[in-house]
Amino acid sequence: MSFVTGILRYGACHVLIDVLLYYFYVTSIHSDAALLKKVPIHALCGLALCYVQFFCLKYMVLYGLPASVARAENLSVPGASHCVSAKHRFTDMWKYFDKGLHNWLLRYIYFPLGGYSKHDSFIKSTVNSAIPFVFVYIWHGMHTSHLYWAAVNWLGVYVEKIAMDVYRSERVKMFEAKYLSETNSRRLRAVFSSLPFSLLIVSNLYFLGGTEVGNIYMRRTYTENIASTLLIHVVLYFGVQTSMEISSYQMSKTKQA
């Protein structure tokens, strides 16, 4: 029964992709750099959302159909990718979007190198975290846009790991317990997370649209207008809050299972 429902689900998604390609021209618009430079900033942000969501839908079909067949043959496969709009952290994006690739990188590259430890030297921890992204860059064809994409994602993952170590330290825990309520602590984390969230989105546009498209988004998002930049990050603040809520719900379901 799961095989039939899987085929029907991903078949319906495939039909939806065909409809989107016929009536919406997001992929075509992103090949027109001159147009991306002219559209209002709010329209540009909408195009970015549509582009990454379209890729997520396409990836879900490309993975889901073979996975349904594999499960019908009693083969164990990683779970389906999570929605990109529900992940505000670089770490979670790499962990939950392509679970098979994430597991492979950990098993065959990251752990053999020694993984990550707070007691490692700065050079060792930096090299260990960078090598998997070097492999990803080579694997995807070594285009300039892929270099920017891999570099920004490596930096995001690395900084998040350091930030989590700091957040879990005794001093920060004592400060949080003394001065911040649970709600305000979450709000503060959401504020700090809004900037990495925007960089995560822009880095993916380097991967999807190429160097010129990525540069347009990078320049217009952060340097075109300070008021627009602030408004974008206010919206992303609420996106981070939603992402946190979804992550909490998914974790509670996992514990119950």
TrEMBL record:
InterPro entries: MB_O-acyltransferase, MBOAT_fam. Keywords: Membrane, Transmembrane, Transmembrane helix. GO terms for cellular component: endoplasmic reticulum membrane. The chain crosses the membrane at residues 7-26, 41-61, 188-206, 226-246. Belongs to the membrane-bound acyltransferase family. HHAT subfamily. It comes from the Eukaryota. It comes from Ciona intestinalis (Transparent sea squirt). PANTHER family: ACYLTRANSFERASE, PROTEIN-CYSTEINE N-PALMITOYLTRANSFERASE RASP. Its main location: endoplasmic reticulum. Coiled coil: none annotated. It is a multi-pass membrane protein. It is found in: Endoplasmic reticulum membrane. This is Uncharacterized protein. It holds the Pfam family MBOAT.
